[in-house]
Design a protein that fits this description.
The structure is a single chain. Helix content is about 75%, strand content about 5%. A hairpin with a 2-residue loop joins β1 and β2. α6 packs antiparallel against α7 and α6 runs parallel beside α9. It folds into 2 domains: about 200 residues, no CATH class; about 60 residues, no CATH class. The protein is mainly α and about 300 residues long. The N and C termini lie far apart (about 110 Å). The protein is built from 12 helices and 2 strands.
Length: about 300
């Protein structure tokens, strides 16, 4: 009887010494990428915390993909924990790209663990996120917040001026649709290219062309706004030999819109020299306009 107990005990010990088998991950599909992107896009500012910033939203977005990659409960819990660390980036260019890149790295780690190979380390996944979230955020903020949204505002501003509620609704709606669309593209790009996706976005010829084109279009729309909605006229007149000269009429025959353009260029040069001190620049511009209006120059 004792020999049987010893044999059973040794059998149990041999089983516990065996390495834990990790199930093979399921294949990540475009539907999974869409779920992860939509989860991040929808929640990226909902659960914004001081210590983790946007990490809860990022982890929430990754849940559909992580559940397909890690069938083992312990490994899934570890994945959740490492994506709850500090994370902060721009929603589309940063968040979309890093969603795809992270899923790609997590899939490589899950496959390696299931095949008994050396997996990608957790530090590598986290360091990739931390290293890329800043540069990608800078690109996204300048393009989305500094260019794209103002293009839609300029397009629908005439609606608002006429009292049509679509002037307030359509810029928001079009901006949301546009950012969601190319944010999903960045998610797929990040997944297919892995860490190389950030290099493609920041230095790739195709993306560089898109960024330059958006910049030119943004400047074009700002020029339209300056010419159409900035109204500066000169009321200065003088008489020579009983002939009255109207400065505004003279300017209209030479170069219409020169006064609004001059005001915009002076403000632009001020920002170039002194930095983006918006409040101070507007105060200087307002003071100059008041002073000129006192003498009926404008």
């Amino acid at each position: 009887m004792s020999e049987i107990n010893q044999a059973a005990q040794s059998d149990v010990e041999s089983q516990t010494d065996e390495p834990k088998r990790i199930p093979q991950p399921d294949k990540i599909t475009n539907k999974d990428l869409m779920k992860s992107w939509f989860g991040w896009w929808w929640a990226n500012e909902v659960n914004h915390t001081f210590d983790r910033m946007l990490a809860p939203a990022f982890c929430f977005g990754l849940i559909p993909a992580l559940k397909k990659l890690y069938k083992d409960h312990d490994e899934l819990a570890k994945a959740f924990q490492r994506h709850l660390l500090f994370f902060n980036t721009q929603a589309t260019w940063g968040g979309g790209t890093l969603t795809g890149v992270t899923i790609s790295l997590e899939e490589a780690r899950a496959k390696a663990m299931a095949n008994g190979e050396q997996p990608i380390s957790e530090d590598m996944i986290n360091n990739t996120k931390v290293g890329l979230m800043g540069p990608l955020a800078g690109i996204g903020d300048s393009i989305d917040s500094g260019t794209v949204q103002y293009i839609f505002i300029a397009i629908f501003l005439p609606f608002a001026q006429k009292g049509n509620f679509l002037g307030a609704l359509l810029p928001f709606l079009c901006f949301a649709i546009a950012t969601f669309t190319y944010g999903y593209y960045f998610t797929k790009l990040g997944y297919s290219l892995g860490r190389a996706a950030a290099k493609e976005i920041m230095t790739g010829g195709r993306m560089a062309g898109i960024i330059d084109g958006l910049g030119v279009l943004g400047l074009y729309m700002m020029g339209i706004l300056a010419g159409q909605y900035i109204n500066i006229k000169s009321y200065f007149k003088f008489t020579i030999n009983d002939k009255t000269f109207d400065i505004q009429q003279i300017l209209n025959t030479i170069l219409p819109g020169i006064l609004p353009l001059t005001a915009v260029l002076l403000l632009y040069l001020y920002f170039q020299k002194q930095g983006l001190k918006i409040t101070r620049g507007l105060l200087y511009l307002t003071g100059a306009l008041i002073l000129l209006s006192i003498f009926y120059i404008i």
